Amino acid sequence: MSMNVFRLCGDMSHVFSIVVLLLRLRVAKNASGISLRTHELFLLVFLTRYTDLFTTYYSLYNSCMKIAYILSTASIVYMIRLSDPICTTYDKAQDTFRHWAFAVGPCAVLATLTHFISGEGSGYSLFVNIQELLWTFSIYLESIAILPQLILLQRYREVENLTGNYIFFMGSYRALYILNWIYRTYYEPGYRHHYVAYFCGVLQTLLYADFFYYYMQSKRRGGRFSLPTKS
Fold first, then answer.
1. Exposed end of the chain (fewer CB within 10 Å): N or C?
2. 145 vs 148: CA distance, rounded Å
3. Model-level pTM?
4. Residue 19: left (phi > 0), alpha (psi -120 to 50), or beta?
5. Which GO terms describe its biological process (predicted)?
6. Is pLDDT above 80 for 1?
7. Which helix (H) or strand (E) holds 186?
8. Burial (0-12, 13-18, 19+ Cβ within 10 Å), 123
């Protein structure tokens, strides 16, 4: 996988979003307004996408980023679920999106259908076929993994500053990756198109659109960041 400025900025935005969230949890010792379910989905995304971590070497940068995503997200899940006093501030009653039924299940079915209908992995070993299937699943799941967090914020309405920054940089990461794909299409010979990734990347970015609008409005006004009540 080649490196370009859009991919590098996207990766750094992703890393920065995770650092901001870890900082919020460790310093404030408070998980209010943070969705455990979103981060369980992201952890599942990384575990199913990076199955090639110990079988295929691309670069030191690539391997370090994959390990960092898995470990940092696992750390976030652990802190919200089990680490005192952070876990006592997590509002489970508000974080109610049924992520296993309405995210993991449908994405698994869709990935299986896509994998076999498209014929991807045909002619390869069973292990490679499973890797390809899990990769497709992770792409679908990542596109909607932020939903529990966005729903939770809508219920709270008032968005804590670091939480807002975390979500902004997370959304920016995917938007920058769309530019990365466009760049690679024009400037990388033999680049393999992933239309499932394109579709899911655009869908994921669109889910952030409403949040981006109110985030930028709050920054322009310099006031507290709050989301409007949905009628």
1. C
2. 7
3. 0.91
4. alpha
5. protein retention in ER lumen; protein transport; vesicle-mediated transport
6. no
7. helix 161-187
8. exposed
